[in-house]
Amino acid sequence: MHGMMMNQPLSIMEILRYASGAHPGAGIVSVRTEGDIHRETYAEAYARGAQLAHGLDALGIGRGDRVATLAWNGYRHFEIYYGVSGMGAVCHTINPRLSAEQMLYIIGHAEDKVLCVDLTFVPLIEALSEHLPRNLKIVVLTDRAHMPDSRLDLLCYEEILAGKPDTYDWPHLDEQTAAALCYTSGTTGHPKGALYTHRSTVMHAMTVAITLNKSLKEGAKILPVVPLFHVNAWGLPYAAPLAGATLVMPGPKLDGASLYDLMEAEGVTSAWGVPTVWMGLRAEIEKRGRPPKGFEQVMVGGSAAPRSMIEGFEKDGIDVCHAWGMTEMSPVGTHGQLSEPMKALPWDEQMRLKSLQGRRLFGVEMKIVDEQGAPLPHDGTAMGELFVRGNTVVSGYFNNPEASDKALDSEGWFGTGDVATINDHGFLSIQDRSKDLIKSGGEWISSIDLENIVMACPKVASCAVIAVAHPKWDERPLLIVVPKGDEKPTLEELHELLLESVAKWQLPDALEFVQELPLTATGKVSKLTLRKQFEGYQLPDAD
Ligand code: AMP
User: What is catalysed by this protein (predicted)?
Assistant: First the structure.
């Protein structure tokens, strides 16, 4: 047929070009590793992105080459996102909390040509230098005055930009061009790369901006505590300029008091991050007796947000939106904004719904299946593995045919490894990672459910439930608690609390105390480490 619509490829750089003209008041506020606060508009970031692209041209970076980052949330990191993808290269964000071995594996697997590091990570790079590829160029994200003394041959970011033209002839890229790369560390084997395209990234930004519009609106000030090295900070560097919101980048200090002070000083309206971070902020809010001024919404995801935390924020008048997603999904899959009819429900019921993982975003399809792969009903009870499909979901893993072969089912759906129920309103409830579920006498026990309830006990700072082997029941739950104060809770009192919501046979058999829970590189409780730590644990009645 003739006379239809134009076909302009979706382009990441187009977001920043648009924001620099359409949202002149918005930009990026950054707490710098140098110690001060820096401000730039999106128009300035666009111009500096151009200077960076010229600089990378001069370093020999071409189409498809990987430019890696090892950096906190800040404006230079943001400029790299755009400059690198805009010139047709791939921005590869590395999680600095990974082990040295995993980091080296990733750098090698991605065949990174350039590595951009914050000042904080220079010692780490020096320690690893012998094992790094010889031709890897290291750029330090600072100016000449702050360049560290080092035996390594380090390039200075500001010098790379200095004197370069502030416009660039951005190439007209096919929208399926690779733009960004992020590795996800599974529980076994090497990390696997999710390779995002211009198309998937722009589509994700558009759907996130439309759906999470309470947070993403013109004039908003958004604090991404979620790192730019963890699934592109949930897409915020793309969705915020699109919506005309300013990003407030916290730099390296993420404790409750530092975040509170920054939020109050900058008038942050919405803050995004994992539950662990919000526990710190909640404690600070309780200490100071009120939330930071102007704080409207908290986005929480990455692991299950405990109901007690959600209620704490909501009682202070802060809307909590509980979201679920994963690296392979760009990452946002669902959001917990209540639908209109739900807003008329009693407060308690609203809080229960808010602690679920919420409804799907446009463009993300979900199904749950049984062990044979047959679809299960969305009735809030049937529990099965969650599969997803959509334009923002990976179709395989970067340069990894073996893992790619196993990623999709025969109908092209991606297996998330999460076990879930979906209710008749489309609300997802993640019960566990498939390998974290506890199977007792052939019946499943959800560790997330138990943890959520135990978190409501005022004597508990954090907790985790893991499966331990049992001769009769196969597996039974062990509860591991980090106590809040000196007075530790007893197993009996926690059983009493749990019995209000769960069946007797689901109660944890034993209670252990630890000083802190081991975390993974993305801030989730590492059940793998806990299971190793408590391997061979003797339950009281297991003889
Ligand atoms: P990542 O790829 O590191 O973002 O991890 C994705 C995994 O984190 C998911 O497959 C879930 O197991 C878990 N996850 C993310 N968000 C939530 C949530 N809101 N509640 C429970 N688990 C979550």
Answer: 3-(methylsulfanyl)propanoate + ATP + CoA = 3-(methylsulfanyl)propanoyl-CoA + AMP + diphosphate
CATH number at residue 122: 3.40.50.12780
> Of residues 266, 328, 385, 451, which has the active-site annotation?
328
- For position 436, what pLDDT does the model report? 84
Q: Among 143, 165, 198, give the residue marking a domain's end.
A: 198
Q: Is residue 115 domain-shared with residue 143, that is, in the same domain?
A: yes
**Strand ranges for 391-531 from DSSP E:** 414-422, 428-433, 438-440, 443-445, 460-470, 474-483, 510-513
Identified catalytic residue from 444, 475, 484, 524? 444
Q: pLDDT, tens digit, for every residue of 29-49?
A: 999 988 899 999 999 999 999
Query: If 0-12 CB within 10 Å is exposed, 13-18 middle and 19+ buried, where does residue 232 land?
Result: buried
End-to-end CA distance of the chain, in Å?
Answer: 76
Is 197 among the residues known to form the active site?
A: no
482: CA distance to ligand 1 center in Å?
A: 22
| Residues 181, 78 within the same domain | yes
SS3 380: coil
Q: For residue 302, how far is its CA from the centre of ligand 1 (angstroms)?
A: 4
Quick check: is 164 in a domain? yes
Summarised one tens digit per residue, pLDDT across range 217-232 is 999 999 999 999 999 9
Please indicate, yes or no, whether residues 485 and 372 belong to a single structural domain of this protein: no
Closest C-alpha to ligand 1, atom 9: 326
- Give the number of domains in the chain: 3
The verdict on whether 444 is a catalytic residue reads yes
| Residue 269 a catalytic site member | no
Element (H, E) at 100: helix 100-110
pTM: 0.91
Which carries the bigger pLDDT value, residue 201 or residue 274? 201
Share of the chain above pLDDT 70, in %: 99
Known catalytic residue: 328?
yes
Ligand 1 residue neighbourhood (C-beta within 6 Å) = 184, 231, 301-304, 322, 324-327, 331, 357, 416, 418, 430, 433, 522
